[in-house]
Design a protein that fits this description.
The chain is of the alpha+beta class. It contains 12 helices and 10 strands.
């Protein structure tokens, strides 16, 4: 059987409110899930996100939504990145929208004009919640809870979604599917530099190869081989930061068959070549694959960046 699964994170809410918000600078966040849904807003820098929506790079001002229970991970691409994180108890949404947990939001597939409007509205609400929780003025708890409800209703109203459970149907419950994928991801992390195949994993899990392919497509929006290559690219970062390894050495140690495939996957994953990344990060202390690590940042500066996304009425009062 495969090894221990990526952990399910317990979200501790603030002051008995149905959410938690904080700022951080991510270096590497290992695969994990939590019962709360999560919004990520990039204030500075570039961050790679892998989730059920696929693999993409968040740049300054970009927004990402992670549904409840979805395995996801983040990787800082540029130094000194800063994110706003807002985690909300989905039970808050279910009071007004019983179907919320079954909604699959298609934010990244919206027409550009509609996406811009939704993005501006959602960013303003996230920024205001974060600002209010920092300033703690009279009535801030009531105001923030109301803002969280408005945020969720804005998501439902302005972002297209489809209803229905995941289309994985080999007799397992949804939670069992999540556990199975977690085991598989954990095994792939531990053995990413070795020769492993989807057939081997399917045999270990006693499922068909076609079922495994559907599981990856529905839960991580990618193929088994794409995910394995992404893990290998991430593993290569710690080696690239060490000057004693040649690019060829890094490629082979990370599990790539040759330097050409390494360059192709790396550029697709991080939108730069291994040599370009090494130039900017030589000597950096890069966490290993499966480890989480966060960087230091200036909170005062971070909140000054946050101000640009506050609604106009609030900016005028500052």
């Amino acid at each position: 059987m495969v090894s221990q699964a990526p952990h399910q994170e317990f979200v501790e809410h603030e002051e008995n409110l149905p959410f938690r918000t904080f700022l951080h600078s991510v270096r590497s966040c290992a695969p994990h899930s939590h019962k709360d849904c999560e919004f990520l807003l990039t204030l500075k820098g570039d961050v790679q996100v892998q989730s059920g929506e696929g693999e993409f790079i968040m740049r300054e001002g970009d927004l990402c939504f992670i549904p409840s229970g979805q395995i996801h991970m983040t990787e800082g691409i540029t130094k000194n990145n800063i994110l706003v994180v807002l985690q909300i108890d989905t039970n808050l949404a279910r009071h007004g929208d019983p179907d919320f947990a079954q909604r699959h939001f298609k934010f990244n597939k919206m027409p550009q004009a509609l996406r811009k409007e939704a993005l501006e509205n959602l960013r303003a609400l996230i920024a205001e919640i974060s600002w209010e929780m920092r300033m703690r003025q009279t009535g801030y708890r009531l105001h923030c809870e109301a803002l969280a409800m408005t945020l969720l209703s804005t998501l439902v109203r302005q972002v297209p979604s489809i209803l229905g459970a995941n289309d994985d149907t080999e007799g397992s419950e949804d939670s069992e599917l999540g556990d199975r994928l977690s085991r598989i991801v954990s095994y792939m992390e531990a053995h990413s530099s070795e020769e492993i195949s989807s057939g081997q994993i399917a045999e270990q899990e006693n499922v068909s190869a076609s079922y495994l392919a559907r599981l990856f497509k529905s839960r991580l929006a990618c193929t088994f081989s794409d995910y394995l290559n992404m893990l290998r690219a991430k593993k290569s970062l710690a080696l690239l930061a060490k000057a004693e390894y040649s690019i060829l050495d890094v490629a082979m140690e990370s599990g790539f068959p040759n330097i050409k495939s390494f360059n192709t996957v790396f550029k697709r994953t991080f939108e730069m070549t291994p040599s370009e990344w090494r130039r900017d990060n030589k000597g950096a202390n890069i966490p290993g694959i499966g480890e989480s690590a966060y960087g230091r940042f200036d909170k005062g500066y971070a909140y000054s960046l946050l101000k640009r996304y506050l609604p106009a009425r609030l900016k005028q009062s500052l």
